[in-house]
Amino acid sequence: MILTMDKVTIRSREKTIVDEVSLTVHEGEWFALVGQSGSGKSLLSQAAGRMLPPNLQMEGHIRLHGQDLLSLSARQMRDIRGRRLAYVFQDYQGSFTPFRTIGQHLDEYQKVHGITPGAVRKQQGMEALESVGLEAELYRRYPFQLSGGQLQRVSIAMALMLSPDVLIADEVTTALDSVSGHRILELLAHKQRETGCAILFITHDWRHVRRYASRLAVMQEGRIVETGGKHRILDHPRHPYTRQLIQATPMLHKPGHLLPSGLQEVRGQ
């Protein structure tokens, strides 16, 4: 086990958003957390890095290699984020400051984590870009000069630059077209094989789950309703909510199969 969540609860003043969720991610695996919008899956992923909004309260335990992250100071968590636990978000554009070059972003990321020789940072930054299929000359460009797919690749390069144990990928293809999204997921799969990192993959798209995940958990209204191996859940879902989501997903049900009443809104969310 590399990342464990034990009875994690997240509350606002008005309601409980995540209710005693427990899950385990093993070393080197691609673990998918699946659910509709509003199920709490993204908040749960943010909780792992202690990145929740200040108006939310959290209880429970989150451990990385057995170390309870919720007991660490803010400074200790800053050291862990990036080095041992890294993120790639769907809002890739929000990760970049428009008036700073790509190289400056990569340089600052390394500098924050104690890599001090400037020449080393520059070399590693260029190598990071090349490792995700980008030309090193993009190092001098500004974010607005790159396409959405290129910026998401830069995000992945930055997240994997310091060889984290766990990469949390939160709806990383949502803002991309289908071709760019496919390329990003293929890149993630390649980098996972290359680095051996575990991936916690937050998604609502069962087609991605079928192609990439090894295990998964299904989340409904803040609770885990089913967890297990990919093939078992896709072929023999036990919970009614899981069956509904799978049946409502294009290309995962038989051609001509009618969707259950009231599930049209689930499609594509």
Automatic annotation (TrEMBL):
One of its GO terms (cellular component) is plasma membrane. GO terms for molecular function: ATP binding; ATP hydrolysis activity. Pfam families: ABC_tran, oligo_HPY. Keywords: ATP-binding, Cell inner membrane, Cell membrane, Membrane, Nucleotide-binding, Translocase, Transport. Its main location: membrane. The keyword rRNA-binding does not apply. Residues 3-246 form the ABC transporter domain. It is found in: Cell membrane. Belongs to the ABC transporter superfamily. This is Dipeptide/oligopeptide/nickel ABC transporter ATP-binding protein. It comes from Paenibacillus bovis.
